[in-house]
User: Which sequence fits this backbone?
């Protein structure tokens, strides 16, 4: 996965947190996709907040072209959410990005 330059998860904690339970194939990939989405959303929000247009553009590119590929095909609501979040971020609305981070990233350790 590609990660933003300014937001990094604590990789040791992430490895421990995403070790799949016995018999659960695909769990680690899904967990990593969530953390990667959190990282790009946090990067975009921080760049906008500090007026870094180049950083915001880079993160927005990932939000639009990378993060939108993560939800599985059968997760129609998840796919729609990330598409809507990308469109709203492009329009300058941080609400969906912040909502996702608040709901999904609260226990992620960042380095």
Assistant:
């Amino acid at each position: 996965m590609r990660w933003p330059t300014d937001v990094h998860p604590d990789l040791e904690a992430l490895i421990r947190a995403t070790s799949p339970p016995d018999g659960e194939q695909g769990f680690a990939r899904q967990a990593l996709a969530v953390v990667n989405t959190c990282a790009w959303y946090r990067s975009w929000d921080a760049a906008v907040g500090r007026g870094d247009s180049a950083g915001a553009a880079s993160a927005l590119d990932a939000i639009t072209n990378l993060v939108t590929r993560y939800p599985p095909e059968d997760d129609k609501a998840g796919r729609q959410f990330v598409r809507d979040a990308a469109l709203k971020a492009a329009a300058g609305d941080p609400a969906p990005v912040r909502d996702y981070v608040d709901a999904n990233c609260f226990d992620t350790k960042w380095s």
About this structure: The chain has a mean pLDDT of 90. Residues 9 and 110 are 4 Å apart (CA to CA).
